[in-house]
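We now fix the convention by which a protein and its fold are recorded. Think of the row as the fold of the chain written in a discrete alphabet. Here is one such record, which you should read through line by line.
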Amino acid sequence: VQLQASGGGLVQAGGSLRVSCAASGRTVSNHIMGWFRQAPGKEREFVAAIRSGGSAYYVDSVKGRFTISRDNARNTVYLQMDSLKPEDTAVYYCGLDETFRAPFRDFDYCADRATYNYWGKGTQVTVSS
């Protein structure tokens, strides 16, 4: 299983970026996919997740600004980030939960780093003030 994150970059506050996570070895629509981020000197934190049924969870700090989505034909998960703030600056990682078509999983499950069996290498997002 490989996850390839891309699309990061430098953007001014208030701007937008879309990061992508292309998967191989697993079909993303059959698994919970998550986005996490890690700022320098901080723990990796949950950002958003999309369940196999298509519903999504977000951390409060990004609700209304970030949108997680999935393109089944491309086997890719996206994180659209709008109204970016300097505090969004971090390396963004995507993760995949190995469980096949998991039945209902709540926020705590999806937001737990230990849920995810596979990780991409991360893509840097820098938001300047």
Summary: The longest strand covers residues 17-24. The chain has a mean pLDDT of 97.
